[in-house]
Amino acid sequence: MRKIVFIWFFFAGYxxxxxxxxxxxxxxxxxxxxxxxxxxxxxxxxxxTSHVPRERPWPSILQEMLNNHVGNDTTYYVFKHTVGGTxxxxxxxxxxxxxxxxxxxxxxxxxxxKIDAGIPKATIMLAQQSLQWAFGDCxxxxxxxxxxxxxxxxxxxxxxxxxxxxxFLESGxxxxxxxxxxxxxxxxxxxxLGEQYALTAALDSLDNFYPGPELFEITESLFPEGFxxxxxxxxxxxANAMALYWYLVIAGEDSKREVMEPVxxxxxxxxxxxxxxxxIK
Length: 281
What we know:
There is one protein chain. The chain has nine helices and seven strands; from the N terminus they run E-H-E-H-E-H-H-E-H-E-H-E-H-H-H-E. By secondary structure, it is an alpha/beta fold. A five-stranded parallel beta sheet has the order 3-2-4-5-6, with helices on both faces. A two-stranded antiparallel sheet has the order 1-7. Strand 2, helix 2 and strand 3 form a beta-alpha-beta unit. The longest helix has 19 residues. The N terminus and C terminus are likely disordered.
């Protein structure tokens, strides 16, 4: 049976946005959009890439997009639990205590103490994370996956992702998505593009775990002007691009151009057209 992946093309003379090539991550578990009109709550987990810029990080922009998509602010809810300086290794017992996972679950999933009465508990997780420190040395942030045949580090990274995601899936989250990291080289000594190989391996190992957007190459096109002054964290253009592509993943074929237009303009990127189904044998 052939699997279906989504690739967003640019029409009217636009070029293919190579970073959003769903064959890289989606050939195993492509999924239709999930904005079906039923009330639901999304939980964003991660570190500083999801709460910078503080005045309007990408989860806040995504909330605005979902409100515009459905025409109200009482159908889809986006909450975030983010902790600066804490990639996956520090959320788990690889280099941490697991407290951040426990807190996120308690606050937003089960029992959901930070969610007001009448709002559904979070059942969908959007992970914007990283594998820094996940490769056997909690004092060395700069070990990473350099090549697609780096099997030792790929498997270490995949196991770290599985450890992280599975704890949420076992505690009330019904489906989880994870994106690739935003562009991070420039003045930063570690290229995080290789994390995609560990994510691909992890996706093969867990049920109800799906790929988020491929953001590394997309945001590379916005470097450095679209980033914060440190050239590491998102500036407003990068935050808008992150929200736009997360929206495309969860909206799928139901994505609306009028919802995307102002966000794409703020990001300084072209608007992806409707998704085209590409069969993969």
